[in-house]
């Protein structure tokens, strides 16, 4: 399982651990990933995604999963999130055509 946020694409960063004597050794900074269950109002489903805590705050700030996915660029999203986004656009397109 990769250490990558499914919504924002945030992944681990590499840096140095610097000792008191200024010796530098490689270390990695991992993102704060959690498994969150997010509900899509338009699709009427819930999705279990592995996202960062910051992405969860962004989803809340943007007004839910649907609004976040519509604003996000598809190249930042994981394959699963991109599939959800395409299904969401298709559903909203059908609703707009019917109205």
Protein architecture, described:
With 99 residues, this protein is of the alpha+beta class. It has a single domain (13-98), classed as Ribosomal Protein L24e, Chain: T (Roll). The chain contains 3 helices and 4 strands, in the order ββββααα. The chain has helices at 53-62, 65-71, 79-98; strands spanning 13-18, 24-29, 33-40, 45-52. The chain is elongated, with a radius of gyration of 18 Å.
Which labels suit this protein?
elongated, Ribosomal Protein L24e, Chain: T, 37% helix, alpha+beta, single chain, two-stranded antiparallel ribbon, 99 residues
Short characterization:
This protein has about 100 residues and is of the alpha+beta class.
Low-confidence stretches: none
CATH topology type: Ribosomal Protein L24e, Chain: T
Q: If helices are DSSP runs of H or I spanning 4 or more residues, what is the number of helices? A: 3
For the record, what is the CATH homologous superfamily label? Ribosomal protein L28/L24
Instruction: Please state the CA-atom Rg, rounded to the nearest Å.
Output: 18 Å
What share of the residues does DSSP label as strand, in percent? 25-35%
* N-to-C CA distance: 42 Å
By oligomeric state, this entry counts as: single chain
């Amino acid at each position: 399982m990769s250490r990558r946020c499914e919504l924002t694409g945030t992944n681990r960063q590499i840096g140095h651990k610097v000792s008191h004597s200024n010796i530098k050794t490689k270390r990695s900074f991992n993102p704060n990933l959690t498994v969150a269950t997010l509900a899509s109002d338009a699709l009427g489903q819930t999705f279990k995604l592995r996202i960062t805590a910051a992405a969860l705050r962004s989803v809340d700030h943007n007004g839910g999963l649907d609004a976040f996915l519509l604003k996000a660029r598809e190249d930042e999203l994981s394959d699963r999130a991109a599939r959800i986004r395409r299904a969401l656009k298709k559903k909203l397109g059908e609703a707009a055509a019917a109205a």
